[in-house]
């Protein structure tokens, strides 16, 4: 059987897709108990009878989580239900300690919304939102042996710290008509959701830590024949690629699944409705379990929790806290900062927008902020193979570093050394400059001595300068900078050299 490419699949079929985005909320405690909601703790140290589902334990709804969910729903253009219930979603999986998940079923708090997604070329795509419902997260499985995935593993370990963490699951309506831009739209949609939750302050949005995860549903249907509307062509069987946790992977998962399904269909084989495991190392998916329907979960109302009934006054109060749409904010900042379209796209792709904006808010110029975050700091992040946001440096510290340059206390070379110290945990930029002795040497007596020594060592250069070849002064500047470990004020050094040579600058 000939394997299809994504491009060939798009020529032969009409893709239909939907995305379920799971957003972990950054509340201090879990959804229904008082356990800490913190990432990175020792396994199974943030658990209690409630989140483990032990007999007799009684859950209590986290009000802050409800507030965050409503704010997110409003940002997605959703209606807010006046009364909604939690339900028990029953299924067995090792990371679900009590064999059911508390979720919302037929009465989600947030429903019927829409979100404008802006693509790189400025095209705006409206994505319909079916619902945004609250639920609790499951624990985390670690598969040991084999390739690190569930298939081929020797055994699995379960960490229940994540079990009970508050989630909002955002479910799109079926998205049609995107054609060969399907993967691009899917990526842009998830990126927009991530930007929104960060702007709301309800999640750190760190996909690499699972704070935002996406399940990608995709099916292919035949293209309409002459005289037939594409809307009348029924959807095909869909696959659901689970827990895709990077924007790049979202795009690649769509590419792989479209090509896989097209290969099957053109080969006369059926597509099985199932969940699929995403493999980052091979950019491929493998079968999981057959995809359940709602009735398979045997939903019934959670008997231990009261309905969620937000007052209209509270909802309107929360509506006033909704920030600017990320796309509109990017367009405004690009104009304010004077960035080109390409520069802004690079900033967004590097996940540096919020960091640069916070640096600019301190009074630092946008170009200076961009220089640091997109230059030296991006290089360090790449070398360490971590996200830019994970580096141990703050926008305030970058602003302080640039301030030292603007005041003439250090130059760019010394600033990079100071930044190295900040990243190593040696203190603030000012403290590192002081402890490492990095401040620029601007004392004329010290500079004059260094210039005289350099001129004495290179008399031929002095002669060239005196003959009118002023550019030769660069050799002396370099010698002085070397002698002072890069701490001399280069501009003042050049002035002194020309004075010694009796030449006008």
Automatic annotation (TrEMBL):
EC class of the enzyme, as a word: ligase
Keyword Transport listed: no
Pfam family, one: GatB_Yqey
GO biological process, one term: translation
Region annotated Disordered, chain positions: 275-295
Gene3D superfamilies: 1.10.10.410
E.C. designation(s): 6.3.5.-
UniProt KW Transit peptide keyword: no
Domain Asn/Gln amidotransferase: 354-501
Keywords assigned: ATP-binding, Ligase, Nucleotide-binding, Protein biosynthesis, Transferase
Organism domain of life: Bacteria
GO molecular function term, any single one: ATP binding
Record-linked PROSITE patterns: GATB (PS01234)
Record's catalysed reaction(s): L-glutamyl-tRNA(Gln) + L-glutamine + ATP + H2O = L-glutaminyl-tRNA(Gln) + L-glutamate + ADP + phosphate + H(+); L-aspartyl-tRNA(Asn) + L-glutamine + ATP + H2O = L-asparaginyl-tRNA(Asn) + L-glutamate + ADP + phosphate + 2 H(+)
Annotated family: Belongs to the GatB/GatE family. GatB subfamily.
Function: Allows the formation of correctly charged Asn-tRNA(Asn) or Gln-tRNA(Gln) through the transamidation of misacylated Asp-tRNA(Asn) or Glu-tRNA(Gln) in organisms which lack either or both of asparaginyl-tRNA or glutaminyl-tRNA synthetases. The reaction takes place in the presence of glutamine and ATP through an activated phospho-Asp-tRNA(Asn) or phospho-Glu-tRNA(Gln).
Assembly description: Heterotrimer of A, B and C subunits.
Name the record gives this protein: Aspartyl/glutamyl-tRNA(Asn/Gln) amidotransferase subunit B
């Amino acid at each position: 059987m000939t394997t299809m490419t994504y491009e060939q699949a798009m020529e032969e079929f009409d893709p239909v897709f939907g995305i379920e985005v799971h957003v972990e909320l950054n509340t201090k405690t879990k959804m229904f108990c008082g356990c800490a909601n913190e990432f990175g703790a020792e396994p199974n140290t943030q658990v209690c009878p409630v989140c483990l589902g032990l007999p007799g334990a009684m859950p209590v709804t986290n009000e802050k989580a409800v507030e965050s969910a409503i704010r997110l729903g409003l940002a997605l253009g959703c209606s807010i239900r006046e009364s909604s219930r939690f339900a028990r979603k029953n299924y067995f999986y090792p990371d679900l300690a009590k064999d059911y998940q508390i979720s919302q079923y037929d009465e989600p708090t947030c429903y019927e919304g829409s979100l404008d997604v802006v693509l790189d070329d400025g095209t705006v795509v409206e994505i319909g939102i079916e619902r945004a419902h609250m639920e609790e997260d499951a624990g985390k499985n670690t598969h040991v042996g084999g390739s690190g995935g569930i298939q081929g593993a020797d055994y699995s370990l379960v960490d229940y710290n994540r079990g009970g963490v508050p989630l909002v699951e955002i479910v799109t309506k079926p998205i049609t008509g995107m054609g060969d831009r399907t993967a691009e739209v899917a990526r842009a949609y998830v990126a927009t959701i991530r930007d929104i939750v960060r702007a709301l302050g309800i999640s750190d949005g760190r996909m690499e830590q699972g704070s935002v995860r996406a399940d990608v549903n995709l099916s292919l249907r035949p293209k309409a024949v002459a005289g037939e509307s594409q809307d009348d062509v029924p959807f095909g069987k869909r696959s659901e690629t689970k827990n895709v946790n990077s924007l790049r992977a979202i795009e690649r998962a769509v590419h792989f699944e479209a090509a896989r399904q097209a290969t099957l269909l053109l080969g006369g084989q059926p597509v099985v409705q199932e969940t699929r495991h995403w493999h980052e190392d091979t950019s491929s998916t493998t079968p999981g379990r057959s995809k359940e329907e709602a009735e398979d979960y045997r939903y019934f109302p959670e008997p231990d929790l009261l309905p969620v009934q937000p007052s209209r006054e509270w909802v309107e109060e929360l509506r006033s806290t909704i920030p600017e749409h990320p796309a509109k904010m990017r367009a405004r900042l690009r104009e304010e900062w004077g960035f080109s379209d390409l520069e802004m796209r690079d900033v967004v792709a590097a996940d540096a927008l919020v960091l640069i904006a916070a640096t600019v808010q301190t009074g630092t110029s946008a170009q200076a902020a961009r220089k640091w975050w997109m230059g030296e700091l991006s290089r360090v992040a790449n070398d360490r193979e971590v996200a830019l946001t994970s580096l141990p440096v703050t926008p305030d510290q970058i602003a302080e570093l640039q301030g030292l340059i603007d005041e003439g206390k250090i130059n760019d070379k010394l600033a990079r050394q100071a930044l190295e110290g900040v990243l190593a945990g040696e203190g603030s930029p000012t403290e590192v400059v002081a402890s490492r002795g990095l401040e620029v040497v601007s004392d004329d007596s010290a500079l004059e001595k260094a210039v005289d020594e350099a001129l004495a060592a290179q008399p031929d250069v002095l002669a060239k300068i005196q003959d009118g070849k002023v550019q030769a002064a660069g050799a002396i500047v370099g010698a002085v900078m070397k002698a002072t470990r890069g701490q001399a004020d280069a501009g003042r050094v050049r002035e002194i050299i020309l004075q010694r040579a009796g030449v006008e600058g």
